[in-house]
Specification:
Shape: globular
Structural class: mainly beta
Distance between the termini: 58 Å
Strand order of the largest sheet: 1-2-3-4-5-6-7-9
Largest sheet: 8 strands, antiparallel, barrel
Mean pLDDT: 81
Order of helices and strands: HEEEEEEEEHE
Length: 169
């Protein structure tokens, strides 16, 4: 005797997944005039012992241009800090995704050293359908820093755990 219960559960689960993945009717995520508060942990001070992510405030000046300030501090010994700014230029606006190019510069300290860091590359900010005010960023590119006492050029690829999460008001 055949039982159809597992088949019905599978069909129901597949139908539910299909409905959940249907994109919303919005053409693109327009953030003009919105402020996003969250964190950013991609500067090199976070990779050192006692590293701290920075609190971030990102503001979209226009549909295509945004800026972000990043500030983080630990008063431990040795101290660790970051004060930086990033600029973004949207290249493609997709439904629930903005693909951009970015440039960042900051003053960093950690491990008893102080220095500067420059970042440049591409990234994407993803918005979960149904939770459109929460942005998750992923970025890749390169960085140039002198935090260790010598100049270091390195490639970078950071997930939303480091590039940042923001809630937009």
């Amino acid at each position: 005797m055949l039982s159809f219960a597992p088949t019905r559960r599978f069909v129901f689960a597949a139908l539910l997944l299909t409905v959940a993945l249907i994109p919303s009717g919005a053409f693109a995520r327009d953030l003009q005039g919105r402020l996003g508060l969250g964190y950013n942990a991609q500067f090199s001070n976070t990779q050192l012992a006692g590293g701290v992510p920075g609190l971030s405030a990102k503001y979209a000046f226009t549909r295509d241009i945004a800026g972000e300030l990043v500030f983080g501090v630990a008063t431990s010994t040795p101290s660790n800090s970051v004060f930086a700014a990033k600029f973004f230029k949207n290249l493609f606006l997709e439904t629930n995704l903005n693909f951009y190019t970015m440039f960042g510069a900051g003053l960093v300290s950690g491990g008893g050293n102080k220095g500067t860091e420059f970042l440049a590359g591409f990234g994407a900010e993803f918005f979960i359908p149904g939770v459109e005010s929460l942005g998750l960023s992923m970025e890749l590119g390169g960085s140039f820093t002198n935090l260790s006492g010598s100049f270091i050029l390195k490639t970078m690829g950071v997930s939303f755990l480091n590039a940042g999460m923001r809630f937009y008001f």
